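User: Quick sanity check before I run a bigger batch. Here is a single chain. Can you write out its predicted 3D structure?
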Amino acid sequence: MGIFKKLINKILDAEVPPAIEKLVRKRQSDNSKASSKLVRSILRILGIILVVISLLVAIAVPPAGIAGIIFGIVCIIKSRKKSNISVSLHRSTVNEKLEAVQNKLAEKNRYQAESAKSPISSDRHITLFQDQDFIIHDDIKDLLWIADGKYKNYTREPLESVPEYEYCGMRISFTIYGSEEPSLIYVKHPILKPLIETEIPRPSYYPDYSSLTPEQRYIYAKLLTNPYDETIDIGYVFILYYGLERHLLRGDFDSAFRVILKLRDIHKNHSFQSYSANALILSCMLQKKGEFILEFIKSLDKEHEYNFSPNLLLLCYYSFNITLLPKDIMRMASTFEFTNRNYIKKNPAIFEQCLSEIINNKYGPEGLHINRFITKTELSRIKMDNMRLFANMSLLDKEIPVPMLSENFRLKKEINALLIEAHEKTKKLLAAMRKKAPIGPKDQSSEIDKVVYTQRYIPDDSDEAKQIRTRQEAWKKMTPAERSKQAGTETKERMESTGLTMYVWETSGDERVCPDCRVMDGKLCLWADPMVYSRNKGKDWILRPKTAVKVHPGENICKGEGHCRCTAIAYYPELVGEL
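Assistant: Done. Predicted structure follows.
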């Protein structure tokens, strides 16, 4: 009897058959009372059937019948026990779901708190302009074009004509395309913070907001918080710029104009500088906003900001009768077919002063005005060249005819004569100063420039004059090799301080040039690496020839001379042909 009791206990502790267990599990996952009752009923029915069959079997085979009866009873007992487990599991599932909801709410509160502290700090999907995820820069917050949401301010325009404009005696009309504005922001589009921003591909050549990936939209959103971040790829800047162009035609002209000026000051990309200059100059002319043209001209205080057509700059001066400055005449010297630019490159301060004196003597304090040489009658006969007003492809359907003032024979002849006279005057002045204050080899033009400028234009008793004279005394005590190296270092620092990373190697061009330097003559070099040069305008860099010098101009110890007489010429894309 003890053995039988142990057997019963063992059977009671045993698991329900796998098929029944699987069915119970399946019903439990549905969290349904109906499924729980069904499982309980099935177990009871199976238990009863097993007991009845076992009673019949017990007559013929008592041991088997007894075992069947015991199993039937176990099924009936287990059905009640599993029912309780099912209810327990159902309650546990509900508790887990409640706990998951609470965790999500806590996570959302934490996320919103972090977003309030830092506009761009989450690694989750976020939606622009909701809950102040991104704090838009004050300069552009009223200049963005929004397609949807509470800040919507843009409706897609059908193909329509803009009122006619008149300039240079011509009437110009435009057509706005019905295509979508490329800078248009959809606030419903997702934004995702990339793990590594530098690995995100840059936008396409003609980018638009809609075609950006979620990661690219995140970078663009960063630009909107600070449009003057020069580290962000220029493709994102162009998307913002397209919207500003629309304002120049039909919107807040004043604000858009001044934001573009600030962008030009920071972003040095050649295409951006060219497109933006076209838009600013021509839109000012069309809308007769001469005061803004003056702002544009005053903003040209960095070399990269002159990366646009010289003819457009002349058109600015002509249209609003502005005095043509000596520094701009020097910059456009090749436009007026003046080829001997040696002093303009090496002694710009002296050349500018000489040119200014010549203009003042010839034209008086009013200065040089292009209107002296081109009358309205002559303007109508000048050759025209078509030029796009905007880079935004959704705005205009044609180009604007622009008069080519730079090809006017009378203007070119007059300014060419001024440049020749300034060249000769600079030449004589430098020769006189070298005799009066010899300071070293001819090619050390930067130091000569300082000497001439000091003795001719700076009062002798000023602190600046004293400092320069001290440097001159130190210069005289240097050896030729030390002078060359010092001049080369100053040239490098001066170019890099203005953002110039490349230069063209120029030798003295005589028979005394050493073989190591002669190999580098005329080659495009990189300030950051004296071991390389480029054959394709800086796109690719290769190692210098084995026989070439592996330093920058002025640093080599040339055979025979003992010092380097080479110089570095600033590299500007528009001057590649001349170099």
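The CA atoms of residues 382 and 403 lie 6 Å apart.

User: Great, the batch can go ahead then.
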